[in-house]
């Protein structure tokens, strides 16, 4: 959907903005996630001033985490905005969501990198984990299997409940350009409506992110490993009769 909006000349925020161009926003996203889901203090809904800082000059917001966690706040903060609710087959959505979001965030290896690498990968990973835990109540792949479809239904019901009908378009990607362009007041492009392989696209982005995290983690861990080797070697030299350093007499 974000590709279609871009084709219409509407810059669209999506979560991969936090991996590169707007990496610095992770700290602020984490702050408002903590306030909403993980604080003992009463939650005061995020308003337009803060959301403007996070969304910069984008003209649309994709329902990616962590933005999806603040869907109702976004609808309230931008009363002039139109809402496109993309209806999907729930089984198809579930397969994509579990593969792309839950599997990657709950992956043990990714979480190991998250623990070791503190300079780049960790801020991104923590925001995504907090979004999944706080908004979806999912902390493991098994919990995702149990809760994902119910979360989908609740989210769609919530959007329909809080959005005035005049601002809401219930849209299927198979509908093509016409209803979307009519709703947004945009001319219909001559090219075909974009249909991306979401799983492949997401997997490629995650691989690039994880690869960078692994490199940074290796750089962070190597000095400690080197120091341990040096200390161990020095100990053996100083104590040649230890179990592992004993020489024959």
UniProtKB/TrEMBL annotation:
Pfam families reported in the protein's UniProt record: Sulfotransfer_4 (PF17784)
Family matches, as InterPro entries: P-loop_NTPase, Sulfotransfer_4
Keywords: Membrane, Transmembrane, Transmembrane helix
UniProt superkingdom: Eukaryota
Name listed for the protein in its UniProt record: Sulfotransferase
Chain ranges passing through the membrane: 217-238
Lineage, opening ranks: Eukaryota, Fungi, Dikarya, Ascomycota, Pezizomycotina
SUPFAM superfamilies listed in its UniProt record: P-loop containing nucleoside triphosphate hydrolases
């Amino acid at each position: 959907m974000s590709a279609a909006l871009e084709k219409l000349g509407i810059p669209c925020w999506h979560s991969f903005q936090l991996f590169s161009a707007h990496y610095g926003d992770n700290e602020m996203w984490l702050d408002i996630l903590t306030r909403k889901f993980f604080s003992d203090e009463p939650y005061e809904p995020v308003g337009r001033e803060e959301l403007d800082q996070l969304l910069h000059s984008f003209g649309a917001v994709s329902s990616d985490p962590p933005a999806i966690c603040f869907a109702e706040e976004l609808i309230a903060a931008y009363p002039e905005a139109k809402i496109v609710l993309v209806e999907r087959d729930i089984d198809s959505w579930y397969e994509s969501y579990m593969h792309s979001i839950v599997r990657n965030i709950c992956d043990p290896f990714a979480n190991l990198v998250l623990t070791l690498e503190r300079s780049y990968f960790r801020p991104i990973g923590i925001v995504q984990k907090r979004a999944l835990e706080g908004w979806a109540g999912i902390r493991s792949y098994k919990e995702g299997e149990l809760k994902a479809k119910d979360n989908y239904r609740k989210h769609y019901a919530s959007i329909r409940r809080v959005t005035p009908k005049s601002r809401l378009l219930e849209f299927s990607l198979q509908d093509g350009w016409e209803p979307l362009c009519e709703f947004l007041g945009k001319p219909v492009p001559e090219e075909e409506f974009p249909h991306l392989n979401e799983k492949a696209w997401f997997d490629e982005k995650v691989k690039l992110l994880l690869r960078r995290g692994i490199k940074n983690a290796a750089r962070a861990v190597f000095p400690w490993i080197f120091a341990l080797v040096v200390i161990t070697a020095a100990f053996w030299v100083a104590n040649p009769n230890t179990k592992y350093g004993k020489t024959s007499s």
